[in-house]
Amino acid sequence: MLTDTKASSGSLPPVSLAPPEGGWLALDGLRGVAILLVIAVHYLGTFAEVNPDASAIFHLARGGWVGVDLFFVLSGFLITGILMRTVGRENYYRNFYARRTLRIFPLYYVSLALIFGIGMLVPILRSEGFQQIASLQGWLWLYASNIKVAINQQWQTFGLFGGGWVELSHLWSLAVEEQFYLVWPALIAVVPTRHRLRLTVIAFLTALLLRLLLIHHDNVIAAYVLMPCRMDALATGACIAVLADRHGSTARLLRWSRPAAVVTTFAIALFWAFRGSFWQRDPVVAGVGFSLVALLAGCIVIFAIALPREHLLIRCLSTRFLRQIGKVSYGMYIIHFALLKVLFLPITPVERLAPILGSEGAVVALRFGIVVVVSYALARLSWLLLEQRFLELKRYFGSADRSTPLAASD
Question: How far apart are CA 400 and CA 267, in angstroms?
Fold first, then answer.
């Protein structure tokens, strides 16, 4: 069992970086980009998967799964920053896990309770697909759905358009993050400061090797959903936090990230060209491609924290549209699949709207817009009525240190 570590203030890691006035707005914008990519792959990319003649925009949307990897890199960066600032302080473990619980659990568990509660109470909703998912709901309550998917080697375990009115297959990524939280605070606490960079490199390479091993044994799904196999994205973000703290500025990181972004972008483009797509279920993409995406996402995070505010990229990421979406991206991620299918699919069938809008693709695009708007509205409502209430309790478990950019999210 984890216990709290106590130390004098003199043993705390040095704080060397200061965010610009008003905070790191581009990081919220990056979250907005990430959630839009995820929604795009689920509602535009899947159309291209079953319609090879779909227009190019739908085929590009098939690469939207990289939004999850961007979330992983952001999480690794922000969480590692929080841990490095607080390690050695009184109640290190208690405060971290209490604050994470208050941020993550309320909406997640309320959503599960509503879905399974309503599904059991309303006879018409007790479809075969729902009952199959309900019989496995224990994995969801324990944040272990990714493990069950890997065991079954089947995406349809928790839906993926096979669960009738309910879709919970996307919750695998939240399970990955929770499992990361179980091990990373202890590793940051026990690994000396001088060896933390080495820790992130080892985690990155371990993930790559594990994926290659699983792919060699024809289990691409396990390579995609298991936490140790996705540690390269989380470790990339952690590496940025460690390097930023070590160098005391982001100038050197920015110099490294520019050529790295060019190289990784070129490599991903080559993969896309030679494989015909950049689909996550492609064994080649799942092997080396995931690590390339993690590195590119890491470069983008560095740009977001290091480039001046007047830079075009920062101005784009800092737009009110992206920042507002980014602030409720967690809620949108849960809601866009878990709740919206029952709201809009039955009332907007393709066969009815296609003649009116001109094509099935236009209907799919309309659905994508509906999902973005309605999931944002519901996530915003959840934030105001539910999540903020719990976040107010964080004051009993330490305070977020806002003196460094590594504190962009707590």
Answer: 38
Output the pTM of the full model: 0.89
Residue 62 to residue 279: CA distance in whole angstroms: 6
pLDDT score of 185: 97
Measure the CA–CA gap between 365 and 376, rounded to whole angstroms.
17
Q: Which residue has the tokens 């977001």?
A: 304
The residue with tokens 């509205």 is 377
Query: Is the model's pLDDT at 351 over the cut of 60?
Result: no
Write out the DSSP string of 293-357: HHHHHHHHHHHHHHS-TTSHHHHHHTSHHHHHHHHTHHHHHHHHHHTHHHHHTTTS-HHHHHHHH
Query: pLDDT class for 246, splitting at 50, 70, 90?
Result: confident
Is 272 buried (19+), middle (13-18) or exposed (0-12) by CB count in 10 A? Answer: middle
Over 50: is that where the pLDDT of 13 sits? no
Tokens for 200? Answer: 């992130």
User: Hey, CA dihedral for 336, 393, 237, 16, is it positive or negative?
Assistant: positive
* Structure-model confidence comparison of residues 279 and 406, the more confident one: 279
